[in-house]
Structure formats: structure tokens, C-alpha cells
Amino acid sequence: MGLDQGAYCVGSSWALMAALFALGVMSITWMVVIAALIVLEKVLPWRQRAEAVTVVVLLALAVGVAFFPGQVPGLTTPDSPAAMRAMDSMPMHETPMHETPMQGMSP
């Protein structure tokens, strides 16, 4: 029964799952917006209207991310100044590729 339920969930929501993954990597704000749309689809009594709103929002977001990623509010693109500042603030431990952590230790 779990396999049937899981297959139904993935089959009916794979696009939303993909959007949540991609947006979660790039923007927690947009991830919350999409999650809220999903909740509204499931909770509101007028489900078809909620689904239509979700489709319009996802299409607009897809076009924005594809063609104007720098203009989408709350979206951090990998090559943006905000992403570079975030990467600069991360502690990086540079280890040469040819060295391993165990090298230099005696048995």
C-alpha cells in the first residue's frame, strides 16, 4: 500500500517536487511560497481554482528563472554578488588534491 501511495504522490506532484528542490537550493523564500501554494491546493474547497493559480505562478516563475534570473525577487543566482559574498564568508579548508588526510602519519 505504501508503494501505491508513494507512486501516486510522485506521479501527481513530480513537477512541484522538482520546483521545491530547485527553489530550495536557490531561495528559501520561494520554497515557502511554493509550499504555501501546495497547502492551499489541498485545503481550499475550490481546488480547481487553487490549481489554476498554482499553474500560473509556476509558469511565471519558470519563465522568470529561465530568461530573467537576475530580476526574480528573492532568487540568488550562483554568479550573483550575493552568492559570491556568501561563498567568501564560508570557511574553506584547502587541501591539495594529491594529499590525503592520513598522509604523513606513521603506522
Give a description of the structure.
By secondary structure, the chain is mostly helical. The chain has one domain. Helices cover 66% and strands 0% of the residues. The chain is built from four helices and no strands. Helix 1 packs antiparallel against helix 2 and helix 2 packs antiparallel against helix 3 (47-67). The radius of gyration is 21 Å and the shape is globular. The N and C termini lie far apart (53 Å).
Task: Describe this structure in a few short sentences.
The protein is mainly α and 107 residues long.
Set down the secondary structure blueprint.
Elements (H helix, E strand, L loop, with lengths): L1 H25 L1 H16 L3 H21 L13 H9 L18
Quick tags:
107 residues, single chain, 4 helices, mainly alpha
C-alpha Rg (nearest Å): 21 Å
Please identify the oligomeric state: single chain
Order of helices and strands: HHHH
Number of strands: 0
Taken together, the total number of domains comes to: 1
- Indicate the low-confidence ranges by residue numbers: none
Q: Report helical residue fraction.
A: 55-70%
